[in-house]
Amino acid sequence: MSQTLKTEAIVLRKMRYGEADSILHLYTREFGRVGAIAKGVRRSKSRFGGRLEPFFRLDLVLHEGRGELMTIASASTVDPYSDLRTRADSLDAASKLGDFVLRLLDEREQNLPAYNLVANMLALLNTDPRASQRETGLAFRAKMLLASGFSPELDACVHCGATEDLVAFSPASGGIVCRDCRESGDFDFGAASHAFYSGAIKAPLAQAPDADPDSQRQVDKAITETLAHHANVRIRSLA
After folding, report:
1. What string of pLDDT tens digits covers the 239 residues of the chain?
2. Domain segments of the chain: what residues?
3. Which CATH superfamily is domain 3-82 in?
4. 3-82 and 83-230 share one CATH topology?
C-alpha cells in the first residue's frame, strides 16, 4: 500500500540513474536512513532546481510505493550549507562525514540524536574552516558512536573495573583496560588519548579538545576497531 510521508532530511550521497534521474541516500529526522529516487532531476528544467545535492538539508515529501526506493515528490531547502563547498578541506570533511554515516547507520529507524549531530556538524563545517581539522572529525565520530549505542567503556577497566593505571584499549572487549588486565591484541591508549576521547564526548563539537598526533591515531583506532568488532562495520580511518 502506497503512502505519502513528510520529513526533514540531509542528502548524504547522490548517484546518477538512467538518463535523467538520480538516486539519493538520505538521512532523515523522522525515519533514519532512506533511499529515494528523484525523477527528472538532471533535466535542465527540473522542478527541483539545484536543491537535491549532497549536504543540503531539506524538507521533503516522499511517496512510498512497493519498491525499496521512495520517490521524491517535492523538496524545499532548510539549509544548503553552501559555504562549506567553497573550501576544499570543508568539502572533504563533509564527504567523509557522509561516508561514515552511511556505513554506520543503515537502518530505517529514527535516531534523532544522530540526525541532530549530522546537522550540527555540517553547520559547523559551513561556518568555521577549523571544523575540518581531525580533532573535530574524531569528536563527531565519538559522539555518533554514543548516539548509535556502540560507545566503548571509558570510565574503568572493562575486565576488573579498576579506575587507575589504564594503559590500553581492547577492541574485542570494547573499552579501556588496566595494565594488569592487558592482553594480546590490545593496543596502547595513553592518558592523553583517554582525556581527548572523554572530553570530545562531553564538549560541544565547536569546542572539541586538542590532541597530539599520537593521541589522534589511538582514538581513531579505538573508534574504527570498536565498530569492526561490535557493529560489523568497516569505516575508513581519519588518519
Report:
1. 579 999 999 999 999 888 888 999 999 999 999 999 998 888 867 777 788 999 999 999 999 977 789 999 999 999 999 999 999 999 999 999 999 999 999 889 999 999 999 999 999 999 999 999 999 999 999 999 999 999 999 999 999 999 999 999 999 999 999 999 999 999 999 999 999 999 999 999 999 999 999 999 999 999 999 999 999 999 999 97
2. 3-82, 83-230
3. Nucleic acid-binding proteins (2.40.50.140)
4. no
Buried b / exposed e along 118-154 (16+ C-beta atoms within 10 A): bbebbbbbbebeebbbbbbbbbbbbbbbbbbebbbbb
In angstroms, the CA 145 to CA 4 distance is: 31
54: exposed, middle or buried (C-beta count within 10 Å: 0-12, 13-18, 19+)?
middle
Give the whole-angstrom CA distance, residue 58 versus residue 97: 18
CATH match of 83-230 with 1.20.1440.120: yes
Q: Output the pTM of the full model.
A: 0.94
Selection from 137, 80, 148, 142 nearest residue 114 by Cα: 148
Q: β-strands 166-170, 57-64: how paired?
A: unpaired
Number of H helices and number of E strands within the chain?
5, 8
CA distance 108 to 104: 12
